[in-house]
Amino acid sequence: MYRLITAGCVLALGLLTSLLPAQEKAADNLAARKLNRDIPRHRDFLKRIEESKGAGDVIFLGDSITHGWEGQKAWQEHFGSFKPVNLGIGGDQTGHVLWRITEGHELDQLKPKAAVIMIGTNNIGGHTAQQIAGGIKAIVEELKKQKPDMKILVLGVFPRGSGPKDSKMVPADKLNKKIPEINAIISKLDDGKTVFYKDIGKEFLDESGNLPRSIMPDYLHLSGKGYDIWGRAIKEDIERLLK
């Protein structure tokens, strides 16, 4: 009996020990810490949401790439019937989005049926792929907590690169290597029920896997052509989420 109890205690202690590092790592993840984003654009969001009385079937959460939908013909062409709400802010990292949907109260008066998330590229310089994926996971978990009936489309971080200003493209082998690592991790957030993952990055590349400047003029932000590609790539997905 003594040996059985001892073995059981050792096993339990081993399981607890194996869990603690993961918990501590999650708690210490810099990419999952809330970063205050109380700036004019955020406050404008709150004002517009209040004035619209929470109208909007689909919200788009993200950074400057999502922000850049504003003024794009493709926005209305592909998403107009969904009453979309653009909640993108240039320069945002995962922590900023997390703050905006919690302490920033951007979702309080909204009753969306679906959310589209594309965030993480601004974390690349200071965080690991694992940390960035953890930050995206924290956002997804918060959305599920606040809006349990809402469907969530998590997009893989778009490809990006750097190159000379006169270059017409970034070769496939020069694209940022951290992005595929992030996307491989966040793809596992897809549960086939409320959270769905889609990587449309290849849609922006040519047949050789290169990133054309005509799609991303600065190899980060999309051109009008790039936004049209994005819209076409996820329109049917959103339609399915809203059914």
CATH architecture tag of the largest domain: 3-Layer(aba) Sandwich
Described by strand count, sense and barrel closure, the largest sheet is: 5 strands, parallel
CATH class assignment of the largest domain: Alpha Beta
Number of strands: 7
CATH H-level name of the largest domain... which superfamily?
SGNH hydrolase
What coarse outline follows from CA principal-axis ratios?
Answer: globular
Q: Percentage of helical residues?
A: 40-55%
Alpha-beta content class: alpha/beta
What count of domains describes the coordinates? 2
What's the helix-strand series? HHEHHEHEHEEHEEH
Total helical elements: 8
Strand arrangement within the widest β-sheet reads: 2-1-3-4-6
Low-confidence stretches: 1-24
Mean of the pLDDT scores? 90
β-sheet strand percentage:
5-15%
Q: How far apart, in Å, are the first and last alpha carbons?
A: 58 Å
CATH topology of the largest domain: Rossmann fold
Radius of gyration: 20 Å
List strands and helices in order, with pairings:
Elements: H1 2-27, H2 40-51, E1 58-62, H3 64-67, H4 73-79, E2 84-88, H5 94-100, E3 114-118, H6 129-146, E4 151-155, E5 169-170, H7 178-186, E6 195-198, E7 211-212, H8 224-241
Parallel strand pairs: 1-2, 1-3, 3-4, 4-6
Antiparallel strand pairs: 5-7
